[in-house]
Specification:
The complex is a heterodimer. By secondary structure, chain A is mainly α. Chain A contains 12 helices and 2 strands. In chain A, strands 1-2 form a two-stranded antiparallel ribbon. A two-stranded antiparallel sheet of chain B has the order 1-4. The chains are: A mainly alpha, B mainly alpha.
Protein backbone atom coordinates (compact mmCIF):
# COMPACT_ATOMS: atom_id res chain seq x y z
CA UNK A 1 0.00 0.00 0.00
CA UNK A 2 2.91 2.29 0.81
CA UNK A 3 4.30 1.71 -2.60
CA UNK A 4 0.97 2.42 -4.22
CA UNK A 5 0.66 5.71 -2.36
CA UNK A 6 4.23 6.60 -3.19
CA UNK A 7 3.66 5.90 -6.86
CA UNK A 8 0.42 7.85 -6.82
CA UNK A 9 2.18 10.90 -5.41
CA UNK A 10 5.04 10.58 -7.89
CA UNK A 11 2.47 10.23 -10.65
CA UNK A 12 0.66 13.34 -9.50
CA UNK A 13 3.90 15.34 -9.53
CA UNK A 14 4.84 14.20 -13.02
CA UNK A 15 1.24 14.76 -14.03
CA UNK A 16 1.19 18.29 -12.65
CA UNK A 17 4.32 19.23 -14.57
CA UNK A 18 3.04 17.54 -17.73
CA UNK A 19 -0.26 19.36 -17.30
CA UNK A 20 1.56 22.68 -17.03
CA UNK A 21 3.49 22.02 -20.23
CA UNK A 22 0.36 20.71 -21.93
CA UNK A 23 -1.44 23.86 -20.90
CA UNK A 24 1.00 26.07 -22.79
CA UNK A 25 0.71 23.70 -25.71
CA UNK A 26 -3.09 23.75 -25.76
CA UNK A 27 -3.12 27.52 -25.35
CA UNK A 28 -1.17 28.04 -28.57
CA UNK A 29 -3.19 25.43 -30.42
CA UNK A 30 -6.47 26.90 -29.22
CA UNK A 31 -5.58 30.44 -30.19
CA UNK A 32 -3.69 29.97 -33.43
CA UNK A 33 -4.00 26.34 -34.54
CA UNK A 34 -0.23 25.90 -34.33
CA UNK A 35 1.21 22.76 -32.80
CA UNK A 36 4.36 23.82 -30.99
CA UNK A 37 7.16 21.26 -31.12
CA UNK A 38 9.42 23.79 -29.38
CA UNK A 39 7.46 23.69 -26.12
CA UNK A 40 10.13 21.49 -24.52
CA UNK A 41 12.79 24.01 -25.50
CA UNK A 42 10.80 26.79 -23.83
CA UNK A 43 11.15 24.73 -20.64
CA UNK A 44 14.85 24.38 -21.28
CA UNK A 45 15.28 28.12 -21.78
CA UNK A 46 13.31 28.87 -18.62
CA UNK A 47 15.36 26.44 -16.54
CA UNK A 48 18.71 27.67 -17.85
CA UNK A 49 17.91 31.37 -17.59
CA UNK A 50 16.88 30.92 -13.96
CA UNK A 51 19.99 28.84 -13.38
CA UNK A 52 22.18 31.50 -14.98
CA UNK A 53 20.63 34.33 -12.99
CA UNK A 54 20.46 32.63 -9.61
CA UNK A 55 23.45 30.28 -9.56
CA UNK A 56 25.90 32.11 -11.81
CA UNK A 57 25.15 35.81 -11.39
CA UNK A 58 23.85 35.40 -7.88
CA UNK A 59 20.66 37.45 -7.86
CA UNK A 60 18.08 36.48 -5.20
CA UNK A 61 15.85 33.68 -6.45
CA UNK A 62 12.68 35.78 -6.31
CA UNK A 63 14.22 38.35 -8.66
CA UNK A 64 15.72 35.57 -10.77
CA UNK A 65 12.38 33.85 -11.28
CA UNK A 66 10.64 37.16 -11.97
CA UNK A 67 13.25 38.07 -14.60
CA UNK A 68 12.94 34.61 -16.15
CA UNK A 69 9.19 35.06 -16.43
CA UNK A 70 9.70 38.44 -18.07
CA UNK A 71 12.25 36.91 -20.43
CA UNK A 72 9.83 34.11 -21.33
CA UNK A 73 7.10 36.60 -22.20
CA UNK A 74 9.49 38.54 -24.45
CA UNK A 75 10.70 35.32 -26.06
CA UNK A 76 7.13 34.23 -26.73
CA UNK A 77 6.23 37.52 -28.40
CA UNK A 78 9.43 37.52 -30.46
CA UNK A 79 8.90 33.96 -31.66
CA UNK A 80 5.35 34.74 -32.68
CA UNK A 81 6.28 37.97 -34.44
CA UNK A 82 9.45 36.83 -36.22
CA UNK A 83 8.77 33.20 -37.00
CA UNK A 84 5.13 32.20 -36.82
CA UNK A 85 3.48 35.36 -38.17
CA UNK A 86 4.75 34.74 -41.69
CA UNK A 87 3.31 31.23 -41.71
CA UNK A 88 -0.34 32.09 -41.14
CA UNK A 89 -2.39 30.11 -43.64
CA UNK A 90 0.51 27.86 -44.68
CA UNK A 91 0.11 24.05 -44.75
CA UNK A 92 0.32 22.21 -41.45
CA UNK A 93 3.61 20.55 -42.39
CA UNK A 94 5.32 23.94 -42.72
CA UNK A 95 4.02 25.01 -39.33
CA UNK A 96 5.19 21.78 -37.68
CA UNK A 97 8.59 22.03 -39.31
CA UNK A 98 9.15 25.66 -38.43
CA UNK A 99 8.54 24.95 -34.74
CA UNK A 100 10.91 22.00 -35.05
CA UNK A 101 13.51 24.31 -36.59
CA UNK A 102 12.89 26.73 -33.75
CA UNK A 103 13.40 24.00 -31.17
CA UNK A 104 16.71 23.05 -32.77
CA UNK A 105 17.83 26.68 -32.77
CA UNK A 106 16.82 27.36 -29.16
CA UNK A 107 18.48 24.16 -27.94
CA UNK A 108 21.69 25.03 -29.80
CA UNK A 109 21.79 28.52 -28.30
CA UNK A 110 21.18 27.26 -24.76
CA UNK A 111 23.83 24.57 -25.07
CA UNK A 112 26.34 26.89 -26.70
CA UNK A 113 26.06 29.20 -23.69
CA UNK A 114 25.81 26.67 -20.86
CA UNK A 115 27.21 23.44 -22.32
CA UNK A 116 25.47 20.08 -22.30
CA UNK A 117 26.68 18.72 -18.96
CA UNK A 118 23.99 18.47 -16.27
CA UNK A 119 24.33 20.89 -13.34
CA UNK A 120 22.67 21.04 -9.95
CA UNK A 121 19.87 23.55 -9.75
CA UNK A 122 20.12 26.23 -7.01
CA UNK A 123 18.08 24.79 -4.13
CA UNK A 124 15.70 27.64 -3.40
CA UNK A 125 12.70 25.35 -3.31
CA UNK A 126 12.89 23.33 -0.06
CA UNK A 127 13.40 19.64 -0.75
CA UNK A 128 13.33 17.94 2.65
CA UNK A 129 11.08 14.90 2.71
CA UNK A 130 7.62 14.86 4.18
CA UNK A 131 5.75 11.82 5.42
CA UNK A 132 2.20 11.51 4.14
CA UNK A 133 0.26 8.42 5.26
CA UNK A 134 3.46 6.40 5.21
CA UNK A 135 4.67 7.59 1.82
CA UNK A 136 7.81 9.70 1.72
CA UNK A 137 7.66 12.65 -0.65
CA UNK A 138 10.16 15.46 -1.16
CA UNK A 139 8.54 18.81 -0.40
CA UNK A 140 9.54 20.29 -3.76
CA UNK A 141 7.26 17.84 -5.51
CA UNK A 142 4.32 18.88 -3.38
CA UNK A 143 5.16 22.49 -4.15
CA UNK A 144 5.24 21.58 -7.83
CA UNK A 145 1.77 20.07 -7.58
CA UNK A 146 0.49 23.07 -5.61
CA UNK A 147 1.98 25.59 -7.99
CA UNK A 148 0.66 23.75 -11.02
CA UNK A 149 -2.85 23.68 -9.54
CA UNK A 150 -2.71 27.40 -8.72
CA UNK A 151 -1.52 28.26 -12.22
CA UNK A 152 -4.17 26.08 -13.79
CA UNK A 153 -6.84 27.83 -11.70
CA UNK A 154 -5.46 31.22 -12.70
CA UNK A 155 -5.51 30.29 -16.37
CA UNK A 156 -9.05 28.95 -16.14
CA UNK A 157 -10.20 32.20 -14.52
CA UNK A 158 -8.29 34.17 -17.15
CA UNK A 159 -10.13 32.39 -19.93
CA UNK A 160 -13.52 32.84 -18.38
CA UNK A 161 -13.43 36.38 -17.04
CA UNK A 162 -10.62 38.49 -18.52
CA UNK A 163 -10.99 40.50 -21.71
CA UNK A 164 -7.95 38.91 -23.34
CA UNK A 165 -9.04 35.44 -22.31
CA UNK A 166 -12.47 35.84 -23.86
CA UNK A 167 -10.93 37.40 -26.99
CA UNK A 168 -8.67 34.37 -27.21
CA UNK A 169 -11.54 31.93 -27.04
CA UNK A 170 -13.38 33.94 -29.66
CA UNK A 171 -10.36 33.84 -31.95
CA UNK A 172 -10.01 30.13 -31.45
CA UNK A 173 -13.63 29.66 -32.40
CA UNK A 174 -13.55 31.69 -35.61
CA UNK A 175 -10.84 34.11 -36.65
CA UNK A 176 -12.96 35.91 -39.24
CA UNK A 177 -15.79 36.61 -36.85
CA UNK A 178 -13.36 37.63 -34.11
CA UNK A 179 -11.75 40.12 -36.47
CA UNK A 180 -15.11 41.60 -37.44
CA UNK A 181 -15.98 42.01 -33.75
CA UNK A 182 -12.95 44.25 -33.30
CA UNK A 183 -10.62 41.72 -31.73
CA UNK A 184 -7.00 42.11 -32.74
CA UNK A 185 -6.07 38.61 -33.80
CA UNK A 186 -2.39 39.54 -33.93
CA UNK A 187 -2.54 40.68 -30.33
CA UNK A 188 -4.33 37.46 -29.35
CA UNK A 189 -1.60 35.38 -30.98
CA UNK A 190 1.11 37.38 -29.22
CA UNK A 191 -0.65 36.99 -25.86
CA UNK A 192 -1.14 33.25 -26.44
CA UNK A 193 2.55 32.72 -27.24
CA UNK A 194 3.76 34.78 -24.31
CA UNK A 195 1.48 33.07 -21.80
CA UNK A 196 2.45 29.71 -23.21
CA UNK A 197 6.16 30.54 -22.93
CA UNK A 198 5.51 31.76 -19.39
CA UNK A 199 3.80 28.53 -18.37
CA UNK A 200 6.65 26.58 -19.96
CA UNK A 201 9.31 28.62 -18.15
CA UNK A 202 7.66 27.97 -14.79
CA UNK A 203 7.36 24.28 -15.63
CA UNK A 204 11.03 24.35 -16.64
CA UNK A 205 12.04 25.71 -13.23
CA UNK A 206 9.95 23.03 -11.49
CA UNK A 207 11.41 20.22 -13.59
CA UNK A 208 14.97 21.53 -13.23
CA UNK A 209 14.48 21.66 -9.48
CA UNK A 210 13.63 17.95 -9.48
CA UNK A 211 16.06 16.54 -12.08
CA UNK A 212 18.75 19.24 -12.27
CA UNK A 213 19.52 21.55 -15.19
CA UNK A 214 20.35 19.48 -18.25
CA UNK A 215 19.25 18.72 -21.79
CA UNK A 216 16.76 16.26 -20.27
CA UNK A 217 14.52 19.19 -19.29
CA UNK A 218 13.75 19.78 -22.97
CA UNK A 219 12.90 16.12 -23.51
CA UNK A 220 9.57 16.62 -21.81
CA UNK A 221 8.41 18.36 -24.99
CA UNK A 222 7.76 15.02 -26.68
CA UNK A 223 6.09 13.47 -23.65
CA UNK A 224 3.39 16.08 -23.81
CA UNK A 225 1.84 14.70 -27.01
CA UNK A 226 0.08 11.75 -25.36
CA UNK A 227 -1.27 14.19 -22.75
CA UNK A 228 -2.78 16.64 -25.19
CA UNK A 229 -4.20 13.93 -27.42
CA UNK A 230 -5.75 12.14 -24.45
CA UNK A 231 -7.20 15.34 -23.03
CA UNK A 232 -8.16 16.86 -26.35
CA UNK A 233 -5.99 19.30 -28.26
CA UNK A 234 -8.19 22.30 -27.59
CA UNK A 235 -9.31 21.68 -24.03
CA UNK A 236 -7.74 23.28 -20.95
CA UNK A 237 -9.38 20.91 -18.44
CA UNK A 238 -8.34 18.14 -20.84
CA UNK A 239 -4.70 19.20 -20.53
CA UNK A 240 -4.93 19.03 -16.73
CA UNK A 241 -6.75 15.72 -16.46
CA UNK A 242 -4.77 14.23 -19.35
CA UNK A 243 -1.55 15.26 -17.65
CA UNK A 244 -2.52 13.64 -14.38
CA UNK A 245 -3.76 10.43 -16.04
CA UNK A 246 -0.56 10.07 -18.07
CA UNK A 247 1.57 10.97 -15.03
CA UNK A 248 -0.13 8.30 -12.91
CA UNK A 249 0.06 5.77 -15.72
CA UNK A 250 3.80 6.37 -16.13
CA UNK A 251 4.36 6.03 -12.40
CA UNK A 252 2.34 2.80 -12.06
CA UNK A 253 4.00 1.26 -15.12
CA UNK A 254 7.41 2.18 -13.77
CA UNK A 255 6.47 0.74 -10.38
CA UNK A 256 4.59 -2.42 -11.37
CA UNK A 257 5.86 -2.94 -14.93
CA UNK A 258 8.25 -5.66 -13.84
CA UNK A 259 5.27 -7.97 -13.29
CA UNK A 260 4.94 -7.99 -17.07
CA UNK A 261 8.54 -9.12 -17.41
CA UNK A 262 7.91 -12.90 -17.27
CA UNK A 263 5.05 -12.43 -19.73
CA UNK A 264 7.25 -10.76 -22.32
CA UNK A 265 10.41 -12.75 -21.63
CA UNK A 266 9.53 -15.85 -23.73
CA UNK A 267 9.62 -13.77 -26.93
CA UNK A 268 12.85 -12.13 -25.86
CA UNK A 269 11.30 -8.76 -25.03
CA UNK A 270 12.60 -6.80 -22.08
CA UNK A 271 9.94 -4.90 -20.13
CA UNK A 272 12.36 -2.25 -18.84
CA UNK A 273 11.46 1.33 -19.66
CA UNK A 274 7.91 0.33 -20.46
CA UNK A 275 6.72 3.52 -18.80
CA UNK A 276 8.26 5.61 -21.58
CA UNK A 277 6.33 3.84 -24.34
CA UNK A 278 2.97 3.16 -22.65
CA UNK A 279 1.79 6.78 -23.11
CA UNK A 280 2.44 6.51 -26.84
CA UNK A 281 0.51 3.25 -27.08
CA UNK A 282 -2.37 4.99 -25.30
CA UNK A 283 -1.97 7.83 -27.77
CA UNK A 284 -2.42 5.52 -30.75
CA UNK A 285 -5.45 3.85 -29.17
CA UNK A 286 -7.04 7.24 -28.43
CA UNK A 287 -6.34 8.41 -31.96
CA UNK A 288 -8.03 5.33 -33.36
CA UNK A 289 -11.18 5.44 -31.24
CA UNK A 290 -11.61 9.06 -30.15
CA UNK A 291 -9.20 11.37 -31.99
CA UNK A 292 -10.55 14.54 -30.38
CA UNK A 293 -9.65 13.24 -26.93
CA UNK A 294 -11.64 13.10 -23.73
CA UNK A 295 -12.70 16.73 -23.64
CA UNK A 296 -11.75 18.12 -27.03
CA UNK A 297 -14.21 19.63 -29.43
CA UNK A 298 -15.24 17.17 -32.07
CA UNK A 299 -14.05 19.12 -35.09
CA UNK A 300 -11.62 16.66 -36.60
CA UNK A 301 -12.31 15.93 -40.21
CA UNK A 302 -13.12 12.35 -41.02
CA UNK A 303 -11.39 10.97 -44.05
CA UNK B 1 6.41 21.97 -66.18
CA UNK B 2 8.57 24.53 -67.97
CA UNK B 3 7.30 27.72 -69.45
CA UNK B 4 8.18 28.46 -73.03
CA UNK B 5 8.07 24.78 -74.06
CA UNK B 6 5.37 23.69 -76.47
CA UNK B 7 4.60 20.06 -77.27
CA UNK B 8 2.82 19.21 -80.48
CA UNK B 9 2.59 15.41 -80.23
CA UNK B 10 1.79 12.99 -77.42
CA UNK B 11 5.19 11.39 -77.83
CA UNK B 12 6.88 14.70 -77.14
CA UNK B 13 4.71 15.11 -74.10
CA UNK B 14 5.73 11.72 -72.72
CA UNK B 15 9.48 12.24 -72.96
CA UNK B 16 11.12 12.61 -69.54
CA UNK B 17 13.73 15.14 -70.59
CA UNK B 18 12.56 16.91 -73.76
CA UNK B 19 14.92 19.90 -73.82
CA UNK B 20 18.44 19.85 -75.31
CA UNK B 21 19.67 21.67 -72.21
CA UNK B 22 18.22 18.89 -70.05
CA UNK B 23 20.04 16.27 -72.09
CA UNK B 24 23.30 18.13 -71.70
CA UNK B 25 22.79 18.50 -67.97
CA UNK B 26 21.98 14.80 -67.67
CA UNK B 27 25.16 13.95 -69.57
CA UNK B 28 27.16 16.19 -67.23
CA UNK B 29 25.62 14.52 -64.19
CA UNK B 30 26.41 11.06 -65.58
CA UNK B 31 30.03 12.06 -66.27
CA UNK B 32 30.29 13.54 -62.79
CA UNK B 33 29.02 10.45 -60.95
CA UNK B 34 31.25 8.17 -63.03
CA UNK B 35 34.42 10.23 -62.66
CA UNK B 36 33.98 11.61 -59.16
CA UNK B 37 34.95 8.49 -57.16
CA UNK B 38 38.26 8.23 -59.03
CA UNK B 39 39.33 11.76 -58.19
CA UNK B 40 37.70 12.18 -54.77
CA UNK B 41 39.52 12.00 -51.45
CA UNK B 42 38.37 9.33 -48.96
CA UNK B 43 36.58 12.02 -46.95
CA UNK B 44 34.68 13.24 -50.01
CA UNK B 45 33.78 9.65 -50.86
CA UNK B 46 32.30 9.12 -47.41
CA UNK B 47 30.30 12.31 -47.81
CA UNK B 48 28.96 11.40 -51.23
CA UNK B 49 27.96 7.95 -49.97
CA UNK B 50 26.08 9.64 -47.15
CA UNK B 51 24.39 11.93 -49.65
CA UNK B 52 23.43 8.98 -51.83
CA UNK B 53 21.85 7.07 -48.96
CA UNK B 54 20.13 10.19 -47.66
CA UNK B 55 18.78 10.85 -51.16
CA UNK B 56 17.17 7.41 -51.31
CA UNK B 57 15.58 7.95 -47.91
CA UNK B 58 14.45 11.45 -48.87
CA UNK B 59 12.87 10.25 -52.11
CA UNK B 60 11.05 7.62 -50.06
CA UNK B 61 9.72 10.22 -47.64
CA UNK B 62 8.89 12.61 -50.45
CA UNK B 63 6.67 9.99 -52.10
CA UNK B 64 4.65 9.88 -48.89
CA UNK B 65 4.80 13.46 -47.65
CA UNK B 66 5.54 15.55 -50.73
CA UNK B 67 3.43 13.69 -53.28
CA UNK B 68 0.69 12.05 -51.22
CA UNK B 69 0.49 14.72 -48.52
CA UNK B 70 0.72 12.33 -45.56
CA UNK B 71 3.05 13.76 -42.93
CA UNK B 72 5.33 11.16 -41.39
CA UNK B 73 7.49 11.62 -38.32
CA UNK B 74 8.29 7.90 -38.34
CA UNK B 75 11.03 7.94 -40.97
CA UNK B 76 13.77 7.07 -38.45
CA UNK B 77 11.89 4.03 -37.22
CA UNK B 78 11.20 2.76 -40.74
CA UNK B 79 14.89 3.15 -41.59
CA UNK B 80 15.66 1.19 -38.43
CA UNK B 81 13.36 -1.60 -39.60
CA UNK B 82 15.23 -1.73 -42.90
CA UNK B 83 18.65 -1.60 -41.27
CA UNK B 84 17.93 -4.14 -38.53
CA UNK B 85 15.96 -6.33 -40.94
CA UNK B 86 18.75 -6.54 -43.45
CA UNK B 87 21.46 -6.74 -40.79
CA UNK B 88 19.73 -9.55 -38.92
CA UNK B 89 18.96 -11.52 -42.07
CA UNK B 90 22.62 -11.32 -43.04
CA UNK B 91 24.08 -11.88 -39.58
CA UNK B 92 21.71 -14.48 -38.11
CA UNK B 93 20.36 -16.32 -41.16
CA UNK B 94 23.47 -15.86 -43.28
CA UNK B 95 21.59 -14.52 -46.29
CA UNK B 96 23.81 -12.79 -48.86
CA UNK B 97 23.42 -9.02 -48.75
CA UNK B 98 21.85 -8.77 -52.22
CA UNK B 99 19.04 -10.99 -50.99
CA UNK B 100 18.84 -9.55 -47.47
CA UNK B 101 18.34 -5.98 -48.69
CA UNK B 102 15.24 -6.56 -50.87
CA UNK B 103 13.70 -8.85 -48.24
CA UNK B 104 14.30 -6.18 -45.58
CA UNK B 105 12.79 -3.53 -47.87
CA UNK B 106 9.69 -5.67 -48.31
CA UNK B 107 9.42 -6.13 -44.54
CA UNK B 108 9.72 -2.37 -44.09
CA UNK B 109 7.04 -1.82 -46.70
CA UNK B 110 4.70 -4.13 -44.76
CA UNK B 111 5.49 -2.43 -41.44
CA UNK B 112 4.96 0.93 -43.11
CA UNK B 113 1.57 -0.17 -44.43
CA UNK B 114 0.53 -1.34 -40.95
CA UNK B 115 1.55 1.95 -39.35
CA UNK B 116 -0.08 3.79 -42.24
CA UNK B 117 -3.47 2.45 -41.27
CA UNK B 118 -4.25 5.37 -38.92
CA UNK B 119 -3.93 7.60 -42.01
CA UNK B 120 -7.28 6.27 -43.13
CA UNK B 121 -8.95 8.09 -40.27
CA UNK B 122 -6.48 10.85 -39.49
CA UNK B 123 -4.83 13.56 -41.44
CA UNK B 124 -2.54 16.53 -41.04
CA UNK B 125 -1.63 17.19 -37.49
CA UNK B 126 -3.19 14.07 -36.03
CA UNK B 127 -1.41 11.85 -38.53
CA UNK B 128 1.88 13.56 -37.69
CA UNK B 129 1.35 12.75 -34.02
CA UNK B 130 0.31 9.17 -34.83
CA UNK B 131 3.51 8.63 -36.81
CA UNK B 132 5.47 10.20 -33.96
CA UNK B 133 3.96 7.53 -31.72
CA UNK B 134 4.90 4.88 -34.29
CA UNK B 135 8.47 6.16 -34.17
CA UNK B 136 8.63 5.92 -30.37
CA UNK B 137 6.96 2.50 -30.24
CA UNK B 138 9.08 0.90 -32.98
CA UNK B 139 12.30 2.24 -31.52
CA UNK B 140 11.31 1.02 -28.06
CA UNK B 141 10.61 -2.43 -29.51
CA UNK B 142 13.99 -2.48 -31.24
CA UNK B 143 15.92 -1.47 -28.14
CA UNK B 144 14.01 -3.85 -25.84
CA UNK B 145 13.53 -6.93 -28.01
CA UNK B 146 16.85 -8.30 -26.83
CA UNK B 147 16.17 -11.81 -28.10
CA UNK B 148 15.87 -10.55 -31.66
CA UNK B 149 17.86 -7.34 -32.09
CA UNK B 150 20.34 -7.52 -29.24
CA UNK B 151 18.76 -4.50 -27.56
CA UNK B 152 20.80 -1.34 -27.19
CA UNK B 153 24.02 -3.10 -28.13
CA UNK B 154 25.17 -2.50 -31.67
CA UNK B 155 24.49 -5.23 -34.22
CA UNK B 156 27.47 -6.34 -36.29
CA UNK B 157 26.73 -6.98 -39.94
CA UNK B 158 28.93 -9.33 -41.99
CA UNK B 159 30.94 -7.77 -44.79
CA UNK B 160 29.18 -7.72 -48.14
CA UNK B 161 30.97 -9.36 -51.06
CA UNK B 162 30.30 -9.28 -54.78
CA UNK B 163 31.99 -11.63 -57.31
CA UNK B 164 34.76 -12.29 -54.84
CA UNK B 165 35.39 -8.61 -54.09
CA UNK B 166 34.55 -7.55 -50.58
CA UNK B 167 32.73 -4.23 -50.51
CA UNK B 168 34.86 -2.94 -47.69
CA UNK B 169 35.84 0.48 -48.99
CA UNK B 170 33.84 3.63 -49.63
CA UNK B 171 34.95 3.44 -53.24
CA UNK B 172 33.53 -0.03 -53.80
CA UNK B 173 30.32 0.62 -51.90
CA UNK B 174 29.81 3.84 -53.84
CA UNK B 175 28.79 1.86 -56.91
CA UNK B 176 26.19 -0.12 -54.96
CA UNK B 177 24.70 3.08 -53.57
CA UNK B 178 24.76 4.68 -57.01
CA UNK B 179 22.96 1.73 -58.51
CA UNK B 180 20.28 1.82 -55.82
CA UNK B 181 19.89 5.59 -56.16
CA UNK B 182 19.50 5.43 -59.94
CA UNK B 183 16.92 2.67 -59.54
CA UNK B 184 15.04 4.68 -56.91
CA UNK B 185 15.05 7.82 -59.05
CA UNK B 186 13.81 5.97 -62.12
CA UNK B 187 11.01 4.27 -60.19
CA UNK B 188 10.00 7.52 -58.47
CA UNK B 189 10.05 9.68 -61.60
CA UNK B 190 8.04 7.15 -63.57
CA UNK B 191 5.69 6.45 -60.68
CA UNK B 192 4.27 9.94 -61.02
CA UNK B 193 3.61 9.43 -64.70
CA UNK B 194 1.51 6.37 -63.91
CA UNK B 195 -2.02 5.85 -62.60
CA UNK B 196 -0.75 5.13 -59.10
CA UNK B 197 1.32 8.29 -58.87
CA UNK B 198 -1.49 10.44 -60.22
CA UNK B 199 -3.78 8.94 -57.59
CA UNK B 200 -1.24 9.88 -54.88
CA UNK B 201 -1.14 13.47 -56.09
CA UNK B 202 -4.93 13.60 -56.26
CA UNK B 203 -5.11 12.46 -52.63
CA UNK B 204 -2.67 15.17 -51.61
CA UNK B 205 -4.54 17.92 -53.40
CA UNK B 206 -8.05 17.03 -52.27
CA UNK B 207 -8.75 13.65 -50.76
CA UNK B 208 -12.52 13.88 -50.88
CA UNK B 209 -12.50 14.97 -54.53
CA UNK B 210 -10.07 12.14 -55.28
CA UNK B 211 -12.43 9.61 -53.73
CA UNK B 212 -15.37 11.01 -55.68
CA UNK B 213 -13.34 10.56 -58.84
CA UNK B 214 -12.85 6.89 -58.09
CA UNK B 215 -9.53 6.83 -56.24
CA UNK B 216 -9.78 4.19 -53.54
CA UNK B 217 -8.36 6.06 -50.54
CA UNK B 218 -7.84 2.94 -48.43
CA UNK B 219 -5.86 1.20 -51.12
CA UNK B 220 -3.80 4.14 -52.34
CA UNK B 221 -2.91 5.55 -48.95
CA UNK B 222 -1.62 2.18 -47.79
CA UNK B 223 0.18 1.80 -51.10
CA UNK B 224 1.80 5.21 -50.58
CA UNK B 225 2.96 4.19 -47.11
CA UNK B 226 4.26 0.85 -48.42
CA UNK B 227 6.07 2.35 -51.45
CA UNK B 228 7.60 5.08 -49.37
CA UNK B 229 8.66 2.67 -46.62
CA UNK B 230 10.23 0.35 -49.19
CA UNK B 231 12.72 3.04 -50.24
CA UNK B 232 13.18 4.27 -46.69
CA UNK B 233 13.97 0.68 -45.72
CA UNK B 234 16.40 0.50 -48.62
CA UNK B 235 18.34 3.49 -47.32
CA UNK B 236 18.39 1.92 -43.83
CA UNK B 237 19.58 -1.42 -45.21
CA UNK B 238 22.33 0.30 -47.22
CA UNK B 239 23.54 2.02 -44.05
CA UNK B 240 23.70 -1.37 -42.33
CA UNK B 241 25.83 -2.96 -45.05
CA UNK B 242 27.99 0.11 -45.57
CA UNK B 243 28.78 0.86 -41.93
CA UNK B 244 28.76 -2.87 -40.98
CA UNK B 245 27.22 -1.90 -37.68
CA UNK B 246 23.63 -1.08 -36.77
CA UNK B 247 22.94 1.07 -33.78
CA UNK B 248 19.52 2.34 -32.73
CA UNK B 249 20.98 5.82 -32.08
CA UNK B 250 21.12 6.39 -35.82
CA UNK B 251 17.35 6.07 -36.13
CA UNK B 252 15.85 8.29 -33.45
CA UNK B 253 13.26 11.04 -33.86
CA UNK B 254 16.16 13.31 -34.83
CA UNK B 255 16.54 11.25 -37.99
CA UNK B 256 12.86 11.61 -38.81
CA UNK B 257 13.19 15.36 -38.38
CA UNK B 258 16.36 15.44 -40.49
CA UNK B 259 14.58 13.80 -43.41
CA UNK B 260 11.57 16.09 -43.16
CA UNK B 261 13.99 19.01 -43.24
CA UNK B 262 15.70 17.50 -46.28
CA UNK B 263 12.53 17.29 -48.33
CA UNK B 264 11.30 20.72 -47.25
CA UNK B 265 14.59 22.38 -48.10
CA UNK B 266 15.01 20.33 -51.27
CA UNK B 267 11.45 20.76 -52.43
CA UNK B 268 8.25 18.95 -51.49
CA UNK B 269 6.90 16.82 -54.29
CA UNK B 270 10.11 16.87 -56.30
CA UNK B 271 12.34 13.87 -56.91
CA UNK B 272 15.37 15.93 -57.89
CA UNK B 273 14.62 18.26 -54.97
CA UNK B 274 15.04 15.30 -52.59
CA UNK B 275 18.57 14.87 -53.87
CA UNK B 276 19.39 18.58 -53.67
CA UNK B 277 18.06 18.65 -50.13
CA UNK B 278 20.00 15.56 -49.12
CA UNK B 279 23.20 17.04 -50.52
CA UNK B 280 22.60 20.39 -48.88
CA UNK B 281 21.73 19.02 -45.45
CA UNK B 282 24.66 16.57 -45.49
CA UNK B 283 27.18 19.13 -46.68
CA UNK B 284 26.03 21.96 -44.40
CA UNK B 285 27.28 20.44 -41.11
CA UNK B 286 30.43 19.15 -42.85
CA UNK B 287 31.16 22.62 -44.23
CA UNK B 288 30.56 24.25 -40.86
CA UNK B 289 32.90 21.73 -39.31
CA UNK B 290 35.63 22.48 -41.84
CA UNK B 291 35.22 26.24 -41.51
CA UNK B 292 35.27 25.92 -37.72
CA UNK B 293 38.42 23.79 -37.78
CA UNK B 294 40.22 26.24 -40.07
CA UNK B 295 39.33 29.13 -37.75
CA UNK B 296 40.60 27.23 -34.72
CA UNK B 297 43.86 29.18 -34.63
CA UNK B 298 42.07 32.51 -34.66
CA UNK B 299 39.32 31.65 -32.21
CA UNK B 300 40.43 28.80 -29.93
CA UNK B 301 36.99 28.47 -28.32
CA UNK B 302 35.28 27.64 -31.61
CA UNK B 303 36.03 23.90 -31.59
CA UNK B 304 33.82 23.46 -28.53
CA UNK B 305 30.79 25.10 -30.06
CA UNK B 306 30.91 23.51 -33.54
CA UNK B 307 28.21 20.95 -32.67
CA UNK B 308 25.96 23.75 -31.48
CA UNK B 309 26.70 25.84 -34.56
CA UNK B 310 25.66 22.86 -36.68
CA UNK B 311 22.48 22.42 -34.69
CA UNK B 312 21.68 26.14 -34.82
CA UNK B 313 22.34 26.21 -38.57
CA UNK B 314 20.03 23.22 -39.01
CA UNK B 315 17.20 25.03 -37.25
CA UNK B 316 17.90 28.36 -38.90
CA UNK B 317 18.00 26.89 -42.41
CA UNK B 318 14.60 25.25 -41.89
CA UNK B 319 13.10 28.49 -40.61
CA UNK B 320 14.59 30.65 -43.36
CA UNK B 321 13.58 28.30 -46.17
CA UNK B 322 10.02 28.01 -44.86
CA UNK B 323 9.68 31.77 -44.60
CA UNK B 324 11.42 32.82 -47.81
CA UNK B 325 11.30 29.82 -50.18
CA UNK B 326 8.77 27.21 -49.00
CA UNK B 327 9.17 25.30 -52.26
CA UNK B 328 12.84 24.71 -51.59
CA UNK B 329 15.98 24.43 -53.64
CA UNK B 330 14.12 22.74 -56.50
CA UNK B 331 12.14 25.98 -57.00
CA UNK B 332 15.28 28.13 -56.81
CA UNK B 333 16.94 25.97 -59.45
CA UNK B 334 13.84 26.07 -61.64
CA UNK B 335 13.79 29.87 -61.41
CA UNK B 336 17.41 30.02 -62.52
CA UNK B 337 16.72 27.73 -65.48
CA UNK B 338 13.60 29.65 -66.49
CA UNK B 339 15.52 32.90 -66.32
CA UNK B 340 18.11 31.72 -68.80
CA UNK B 341 15.74 29.85 -71.11
CA UNK B 342 13.46 32.85 -71.50
CA UNK B 343 16.28 35.37 -71.57
CA UNK B 344 16.16 38.21 -72.58
CA UNK B 345 12.38 38.21 -72.21
CA UNK B 346 12.17 36.81 -68.70
CA UNK B 347 9.99 38.89 -66.50
Amino acid sequence: MDKFLQLTLTGFTTGAVLALVALGFVLIYKASGVINFAQGEFLLVGAYVTFGLVAEIGVPWTVGVALTMLFAVILGVLVERLVLRSLIGEPILSVIMITIGLSSLLRAIVHAIWGTAGRPFPPFIPSQTINILGAVVPADRLIAIGLALILLAVFSLFFHYSRDGIAMRATADDQQVALSMGISVKRVFAVAWSISALAAAIAGVLVANIVGVSAAVGGIGLRVFPVVILGGLNSIPGAIIGGIIIGLLEAYTAGYGYHLGPLLAPIGLDAGGLSTVIPFIILVIILMIRPYGLFGQEIIERV
Amino acid sequence: MQSGVFHTTYNQDMVLRPMPAQKIRLALVIIFVLVFPFVASPYQLTLINQIGIASIGAIGLNILTGFTGQISLGQGAFMAVGAYGSGLLAARLGLPWWLAIPVACTITALVGAVFGMPSLRLKGLYLAIATLAAQQIILWLITHWKGLTGGVEALNVPLATLFGYSLNTDFRFYWIILLCLVGTVLVAVNLFRSKIGRAFVAIRDQDIAAEVMGVNLFYYKLLAFATSSFFVGLSGALIAHWRLIVNYERFTIETSIFYLAVIIIGGLGSVSGSIYGAAFMTLLPAMLNNIGRSLEDLIPYIANIIPFLQQAAFGLVIILFLIFEPEGIAKLWRDVKDYFRLWPFSY
